[in-house]
From TrEMBL:
<comment type="similarity">
    <text>Belongs to the glycosyltransferase 104 family.</text>
</comment>
<dbReference type="InterPro" id="IPR016633">
    <property type="entry name" value="EarP"/>
</dbReference>
<protein>
    <recommendedName>
        <fullName>Protein-arginine rhamnosyltransferase</fullName>
    </recommendedName>
</protein>
<keyword id="KW-0808">Transferase</keyword>
<keyword id="KW-0328">Glycosyltransferase</keyword>
<comment type="function">
    <text>Protein-arginine rhamnosyltransferase that catalyzes the transfer of a single rhamnose to elongation factor P (EF-P) on 'Lys-32', a modification required for EF-P-dependent rescue of polyproline stalled ribosomes.</text>
</comment>
<dbReference type="GO" id="GO:0003746">
    <property type="term" value="F:translation elongation factor activity"/>
</dbReference>
<dbReference type="Pfam" id="PF10093">
    <property type="entry name" value="EarP"/>
</dbReference>
<keyword id="KW-0251">Elongation factor</keyword>
<keyword id="KW-0648">Protein biosynthesis</keyword>
Length: 377
């Protein structure tokens, strides 16, 4: 009999939570031969990532995973052997009570947010005592051997390498999105939250000596993009040219196609957690728009990652990268920071490849979750 896993996901206001849990559920089922149920409270958000899914189905099977709607009134279900509550979501009380009645209580894991902060190493894997006696533990994704690692399917990097070694595949994929970049143009993807510094960055790209083609999937940044272009509406396929810059709006694509988009680009601006990790696996220079928290608490997470990521860069390249990320996240002049980054482009490309290889040498998140369960038996 396959070990049963329940993963609970509450969609808050973006796609990072469902993006992470959907990738994890597919990998646990496909690579580890587990019986996985993914409980989602917002199927509309799920359909954006899995277009073949049915937003009205209470139960459906997609890519080896049983996807269940998690309604306000709990429908009842026997608890799995392993229960994963993603990002501190609150499990249904009736489900928790049922967990306590099992002959062998399930292993309960609180899958937390990704962070490079020092304290994560010490908190990963610690127990969280429950009054009802259930076994609950903190599980932190991360970038060191003392954490739970990063999501990475076994075939991800080989697929990326094969894609890049077949230029026709890249051209075919881009053409399928209606993208036909000019010869020699630098391809940049942009997936971000609202940002007042966007126009400042685009001004510099438009005046640059090197042609750039900016690909913008549908999302929250379109309002700022429209303001810079002087366009109230930016439908999918919209194409605008200003100086050396071409701007093109793309549809909100599936997860697999988003990976291909990242692989196709020379630079990726990403947001949140899911696309942030996928950009690291793409192995090219990137820019992270971190999720904003009250009292700028997110800046500590940003600085912690920069401290880790810039290790191995020259002092000048590391400072230029840091200045760019701070400008994007702290409302500072973006154009000036972008120009200062250009002399270090080749070094940043090589560093991105080395970072990818370093992280890929560690066990992935799904593998570490499974091993944690086996060690608990």
């Amino acid at each position: 009999m396959k070990t049963t896993w329940d993963i609970f996901c509450t969609v808050v206001d973006n796609y990072g939570d469902i993006g992470v849990t959907w990738r994890l559920a597919r990998q646990l089922a496909g690579e580890h031969d587990l019986a996985v149920r993914l409980w989602v409270d917002d199927l509309q958000a799920f359909v954006r990532l899995c277009p073949e899914a049915d937003s009205q189905a209470e139960r459906q099977r997609r890519q080896g995973v049983e996807v269940r709607h998690w309604p306000a009134t709990w429908p009842g279900a026997e608890p799995a052997q392993v229960v994963v509550g993603a990002f501190a979501c609150q499990l249904p009380q009736a489900y928790v009570e049922a967990m306590g009645k099992q002959a062998t209580p399930p292993l309960w894991l609180n899958l937390d947010y990704l962070s490079a902060e020092d304290w994560v190493d010490g908190c990963h894997g610690l127990p969280s005592p429950q009054a009802n006696g259930l076994r609950k533990f903190f599980f932190f994704p991360g970038f060191t051997d003392k954490t739970g690692g990063l999501l990475r399917e076994a075939a991800l990097l080989p697929r990326c390498q094969a894609f890049r070694q077949a230029p026709d595949e890249r051209a075919k994929f881009l053409a399928g999105l209606g993208v036909h970049p000019a010869a020699g143009a630098r391809l940049i993807s942009l997936f971000a939250y609202e940002n007042p510094q966007l126009g400042n960055w685009l001004d510099v790209l438009a005046k640059g000596a090197h042609p750039s083609h900016l690909l913008v999937p549908q999302g929250r940044i379109l309002g700022d993009l429209g303001h810079w272009l002087g366009e109230a509406d930016l439908p999918v396929g919209a194409l605008h040219r200003r100086g050396a810059l071409t701007v093109q709006v793309l549809p909100f694509v599936s997860q697999d196609d988003y990976d291909r988009l990242l692989w196709s680009c020379d630079f990726n601006a990403v947001r949140g957690e899911d696309s942030f990790v996928r950009a690291q696996w793409a192995g090219v220079p990137m820019l992270w728009h971190i999720y904003i928290q009250e009292e700028n608490a997110h800046w500590e997470k940003l600085e912690a990652f920069l401290t880790l990521y810039r290790h191995g860069l020259s002092a000048a390249a590391g400072q230029a990268l840091t200045d760019l990320w701070r400008a994007w996240n702290m409302d500072r002049p973006m154009g000036q920071a972008w120009q200062a980054l250009q002399p270090h482009w080749d070094e940043l490309r090589e560093h991105a490849r080395q970072w990818q290889a370093t992280q890929a040498a560690r066990p992935d998140l799904a593998t570490r979750l499974v091993q944690f369960y086996r060690n608990s038996l």
